[in-house]
Please model this.
Amino acid sequence: MKKWLAIVLILALMATAAPVSSFAQAERPEPSATEITFDVLVIRPLGIAATVVGAGLFIVTLPFALPTGGVGLSARKLVADPFTFTFLRPVGYHE
Model:
């Protein structure tokens, strides 16, 4: 009886997980030429500046983050997130 219950639970979990993954991979509309131009000329340079300023702020906050254990959070929010937004995001997409 326990074996059948486990099988039914696994199948139920698999059935509910499939629709969620299909929503997560929904296609985004292709960006227009204006959006790509704005991204390359305005947003990317601002992202580079945010990465550089964030790295400087990370160095300043490091003495305060070390004793509290917040180094990882500080590094992610001040350096990694702006870097990812600037250099790893497809051109023209702002999400």
Notes: The mean pLDDT is 83.
